[in-house]
Design a protein that fits this description.
The protein has a domain at 7-73: Arc Repressor Mutant, subunit A, CATH 1.10.10. It is built from 5 helices and 3 strands; from the N terminus they run αβααββαα. The chain has helices at residues 7-18, 24-35, 42-51, 71-74, 97-106; strands spanning 22-23, 55-57, 62-65. Strand 2 and strand 3 (62-65) form a beta hairpin.
Length: 107
């Protein structure tokens, strides 16, 4: 049966008591035991951790409380991320914009 606390609240309690970062697999194991969650919830838990500002994702898939970490330990410099830019579409000079848009909607 599920606890009254959310999985991220339980993770926060666990990390507060441990006083150090831990591997995601160990954190999930501990949280799932307390919460009563099956492995089909692991992806949701990971997403919830990622979106919760109380947590910091560290190297080697470790997690810790953000309040114990320096900013640069838990934040990615997005200026260094390379984007895959799509090649611009070639436009057939004989077609107008409406024809092109209709073709895109067909797939």
């Amino acid at each position: 049966m599920a606890s009254a606390k959310s999985m991220t609240d339980i993770a926060y309690d666990i990390l507060s008591k441990k006083k150090r970062s831990i591997q995601f697999a160990k954190l999930w194991e501990d949280v799932s035991k307390i919460y009563g969650a099956s492995n089909d919830r692991v992806a949701q838990f990971y997403s919830d951790l990622t979106l919760d500002s109380r947590f910091a994702s560290l190297k080697e898939n470790k997690w810790d409380l953000a309040e114990r970490r320096k900013f640069d330990e838990s934040h990615v410099d997005i200026s260094k991320i390379e984007l895959d830019e799509d090649e611009p579409e070639e436009v057939d000079e004989g077609k107008d914009t409406t024809d092109i848009m209709m073709e895109k909607e067909d797939y």
